[in-house]
Amino acid sequence: ILELYAGSARLSRAFAAQGVAAEAWDVSYGSANDLLKEGNVQVILRELRSGSVCFLWLAIPCSSWSRARRNDGRGPGPLRDNDEFLWGFDHLGEKDMAKVQEANRLVKNSCRIIREAMKLEIPWVVENPKTSRLWLIPQMQYFLKQGAYQNEVHFCQFGELWRKATFLLAWHLNDFGSISKICSGTPGICSRTGDRHINLRGTDAAGAWITRIAQPYPRSLCFRVVTKVISSLLNHQPMG
Questions:
Q1: What is the pLDDT of residues 63-98, one digit of tens each?
Q2: 107: number of CA atoms within 13 Å, CB side?
Q3: E strands of 158-236, at which residues?
Q4: Cross-strand partners of 151
Q5: Which pLDDT does position 129 carry in this prediction?
Q6: In 3-37, which ranges are continuous DSSP H helix?
Q7: Count of CB atoms within 10 A of residue 116's CB?
Q8: Tens digit of pLDDT for each residue in 111-139?
Q9: What is the phi/psi pair of residue 23, to 5°?
Q10: How far, rounded to the nearest angstrom, does the alpha carbon of residue 213 sit from its chain's CA centroid?
Q11: Residue 194, class by beta-carbon neighbours within 10 Å (0-12 exposed, 13-18 middle, 19+ buried)?
Q12: pTM
């Protein structure tokens, strides 16, 4: 399997623990993993075409697409909106404009990779927060029309202290929809534990987004993903 934007690579390690060869890519590992570079994108495309990849997972960076950036005086303002400026406001400063343009390029490169996987009938999943503006772009709407389907998971239902509602957009995977698990508690209260969720809004004392602590996938979610993907691949009953 191939995991792009893998971060801690917890999902890849979960696959490897079940005897499945897994390759993790993340820019934090070095420039050879930077998918802003066309040469690296071509490496991925060649790997897909080689027939060695049976599943693709993409956790496309969401920071500039996040609705956590808002005009509330608690942190930086938004870089996009939901409509005319979905690809970025035109009044941004140099630093923010560069961040938006880089994020846009990553998304477009990721969509090229996804289209190639679809051409080759390789199952894939895209992960992003439920509220991410990434889901609004035309490319994601196109994938939905091509049979991709959204699955909602809340991290608190997999053992974490925060809710973190997340969408997993899946294509060509049988029964992956049963992975969905949603917190049904009253606002701010976890239905699994009865305790209050940790609030992930704002920044910490060092100015880092608090959402960063919730980036790694819950271990039990990784196990569930691995189980569902392996079952689908072994049964050869794809959806999408």
A1: 899 886 666 555 678 899 999 999 999 999 999 999
A2: 24
A3: 165-171
A4: 168
A5: 94
A6: 10-17
A7: 17
A8: 999 999 999 999 999 999 999 999 999 99
A9: -120, 120
A10: 15
A11: exposed
A12: 0.91
Q: Which tokens belong to 126?
A: 């895209």
Phi, psi of 106 (to 5 degrees): -60, -45
Beta strands (DSSP E) in the chain are 2-4, 23-25, 56-58, 124-129, 149-154, 165-171
Instruction: Give Cβ neighbours of residue 21 (< 8 Å, ≥ 6 apart).
Output: 1, 15
Which long-range contacts does 7-13 make (Cβ < 8 Å, 24+ apart)? 7/59, 7/215, 7/216, 8/215, 8/216, 10/216, 10/217, 10/219, 10/222, 11/57, 11/217, 11/222, 11/225, 11/226, 13/222
**Rounded to whole angstroms, how far apart are CA atoms 228 and 36?**
31
Q: Are 114 and 106 in contact (CB under 8 A)?
A: no
Tell me the two tokens of residue 199. Answer: 């609030």
Average pLDDT over all residues of the chain: 92
Strand ranges in 5-146 using DSSP code E only, listed in sequence order = 23-25, 56-58, 124-129
Q: List, for residues 132-159, the tens digit of each pLDDT value.
A: 999 999 999 999 999 999 999 999 999 9
Cα separations (Å) of 187 from 169, 183, 194, 201? 25, 10, 11, 15
Assess contact for 92 and 31: CB atoms under 8 A: no
Cβ neighbours of residue 153 closer than 8 Å, sequence gap 6 or more: 165, 166, 168, 179, 180, 181, 182, 221
**Contact at 8 Å (CB) between 175 and 235?**
no
Task: Give the three-state DSSP class for 124.
Answer: strand
In which region does residue 7 sit, left (phi positive, over 0), alpha (psi from -120 to 50) or beta (all else)?
left
Distance from C-alpha of 99 to C-alpha of 64, rounded to nearest angstrom: 7
